[in-house]
Amino acid sequence: MTTKPNEENPMELGIQPLDTVMEEMKLSNHDLVTATAEQLTHKTVNKARKGRQLTKRSQRKVIDAMNAMKGKREAYQLEDLFTYRGR
Asked: Where are the alpha helices (DSSP H) in the chain?
């Protein structure tokens, strides 16, 4: 599950599966921000999609927001949306 960081910028891990899932569901960053009561910003969602390394806590907020958007269907796990574990 761990991805090698970009040699030029070790914080950049490339486009994440989250981006693909959001595109398929036709969700915007704003949709995720409004889907959760937690403090989640547009900037954090954008970083998550583009592969900028996030903390475990930020990853959890994004996962929780995605699960809120998904409804009662099977919940997303870390491995479904990210290729790395937060630091």
From this structure: 17-24, 29-35, 42-50, 56-70, 78-81
